[in-house]
């Protein structure tokens, strides 16, 4: 019976691809890891290594024995490559500058990040902050940065 090396290589390709999203997110799900996985996951060299491994394992899997496993890995490789580029911090952390303010419209129980400076209070709804992570604004006549 032949050794199922092609299955192992295809599985490694898929795992390397999944690590592209899992490495930076592991900090949120396993706080004891600290911030190191987040730092490593957002390095361009780490992303490039992950993409290289995805393609290498997929290609070798297909070369060892053409099978559905290898073709699946080759099919997923470009998806993982695009994911790696889209999740890069320069694409994720796009600051929102001077958001539009409104005196009304928030529900009484809406989760907000509130800031008070020089008698001026501003509440940023989390639904506004979460997609951007950064909000540049002016509060109380001075520049302010709200982060999430």
Q: Count helical runs.
A: 6
Mean pLDDT across the residues is 78
What does the overall shape look like? elongated
Distance between the termini: 55 Å
Low-confidence stretches: none
Instruction: Kindly state the percentage of residues in helix.
Output: 55-70%
Query: What portion of the residues fall into strands of 2 or more residues?
Result: 15-25%
Q: What letter string, H or E per element, gives the SSE order?
A: HHHHHEEEHEE
Number of strands: 5
State Rg: 22 Å
Q: Which strand order do you get reading across the main beta sheet?
A: 1-4-5
Please tell me about this protein's structure.
The protein is of the alpha+beta class and 148 residues long. It folds into two domains: 87 residues, no CATH class; 52 residues, no CATH class. The protein is built from six helices and five strands, in the order αααααβββαββ. The chain is elongated.
Task: Supply the key terms.
alpha+beta, 2 domains, two-stranded antiparallel sheet, 6 helices, 5 strands, 55% helix, elongated
């Amino acid at each position: 019976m032949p050794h199922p090396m092609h299955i192992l290589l295809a599985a490694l390709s898929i795992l390397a691809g999944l690590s592209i999203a899992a490495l930076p997110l592991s900090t949120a799900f396993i706080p004891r890891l600290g911030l190191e996985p987040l730092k490593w996951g957002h390095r361009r060299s780490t992303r490039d290594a992950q993409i290289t491994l995805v393609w290498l394992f997929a290609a070798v899997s297909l070369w060892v024995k053409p099978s559905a496993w290898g073709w699946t890995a080759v099919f997923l490789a470009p998806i993982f490559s695009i994911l790696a580029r889209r999740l890069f911090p320069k694409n994720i952390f796009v600051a929102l500058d001077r958001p539009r303010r409104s005196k009304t419209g928030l529900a009484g129980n809406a989760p907000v990040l509130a800031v008070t400076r020089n008698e001026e209070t501003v509440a940023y709804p989390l639904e506004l902050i979460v997609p951007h992570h950064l909000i540049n604004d002016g509060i109380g006549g001075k520049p302010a940065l709200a982060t999430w």
